[in-house]
Amino acid sequence: MKKRLATKKTLVCVGPGGVGKTTTAAALGVIGARNGLRTLVCTIDPAPRLADALGVANLGSTPTAIGADTAASLGITSPDMLHAMRVDPATAFAHLVEEQVSDPELRRHIFSNSLYRHVTTNLTGSQEYAATLALYELRRDGGYDLIVLDTPPTANALEFLETPERLAAAIGSPALQWFARPDPRLGRFSLKRLGVGGAMIIRRAGKLMGSKFLDDLGAFLLDIREVLGGFLTRAREIEAVLKRPDVGFILVMTPETAAVNEALYFARRLRETGSPLCCYIANRTLQEPLPCSETVLREQIAGMPALRDLAKGELEDAARKLADLAQYLTKIAHAQKGELDRLSHESPGVEITTVPLLPHDVSSIDSLLAIADRLESA
Length: 378
What we know:
This protein is of the alpha/beta class. It has two domains: 2-180 and 224-288 and 348-377, Rossmann fold (3-Layer(aba) Sandwich); 294-337. The chain is built from 17 helices and eight strands. α8 packs across α13 (225-241) and α15 (294-302) packs across α16.
């Protein structure tokens, strides 16, 4: 992992929700800072896991250095070597609008429009695009040797990769470009442009949602003309950044059949787009339990002071259930190993790092330290 960090300026942790991306991003940030890289870890996940793991209270949209005690516990020489921040979608979009629109009054119009607020906070893909906007700004502004981006929780890893391309296609579509033009006779947005069918649909929507809906729609379509070009240009710039050799994608997953299938598909898409895949990180892998018979388990249970008075029938039942559990865990461990072998066979040359299942969530310095040590030594 040290070698990979030495050649990258940006690491993008991708994968479906709930597989440990935030933890992995934090651990990679720790490794970077330990090795003398001024590192920033960014997350868009509103849950406080990253802040908890790094001991940073009230993580916000401004980079915050970890505390001196936390740095010492993690083996980092100076707290200034590791910063963390949470990407705020509204702030990320606002920065882009401010770059594209110089008129303060027009900015106010755009920011106060309810449709703009919906598009930039609730629309599918808005979080992913906000993450790429923040990443682009941070790389452009400099100040960090390594940026680790924890991407939003998604159903699959490809959503993050495809967001800039989708947005560029949507913004560049002739239909939207035409739709956003004002009526040349009226000098403003007009329902007449839509034709009878389209105008009727929007009028009905206006009756359902109130007249303010039509006002917001018209204002949004007119005002957004000023920033469509900037959004399109930025989407293309982000797409180019994600293909640079100093950017590395890390696919975080669990060693299960569906996850391995997705990982293989994701790797293939990365190759097709020319984006670099650094490695796979398989979290929560099970270690095969040591062989243990009912007889041995019964003796071990009987030898425990707290269970010395256990009735014979209860002792037998406990030993049998524990033996069944050990057998079940052995089957799962074998199945996981089979899936990781398949991933290795079909992804020759791509490193696979496994992180064992911990008995608790990673929300403390000690548990984060264990993950970082595991990844660094891989």
